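RETRY 2/3 - previous attempt timed out on the joint model. Re-submitting the same 154-residue input unchanged.
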Amino acid sequence: MKTILVLNGPNLNLLGTREPAVYGAETLADVERLCRDEAGKLGMSADCRQSNHEGRLIDWIHEAGREIAAGNMLGVVFNPGAFTHTSVALHDAIKGANATVIELHISNVHAREEFRRHSYISPAARGIIVGFGVIGYAIAIGALVRLAAGPRAA
Ligand code: DQA
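RETRY 2/3 succeeded.
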């Protein structure tokens, strides 16, 4: 069984109480359960991790690159939180590790403040899912599975 890494960046541990009008009422535990359920339905397992620290996220992306190359992992669903808008280092990590990454945002970042419209992650991502609330995580997991199965699976 292959793994999908679900990475959540800074402040996403506060889901449920953090600006619920923007991010919804589900907690990070709810999101991680949703991911495990969706992955399970598709014959995959979800490895869910969260960190507020850029370096730890970088290390996990490097690890994912090795696991993908070894054939043990399909890819990464990554919500980089505010690092989306600041981190050249995460961009370089994804490129350097050759990791298949779906960038995900719960909110529609393009309908919010100007500073959220630019992403350092997008040019290094395989695809982007934005603004679907937490069901975006299920959509991203499905996308990774379909990408791995090839165009006929669409
Ligand atoms: C976010 C959007 C980012 O702009 C913000 O800094 C976050 C969450 C989202 O999921 O909508 O922390 O990535």
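The chain is about 40% helix and 20% strand. Closing ticket.
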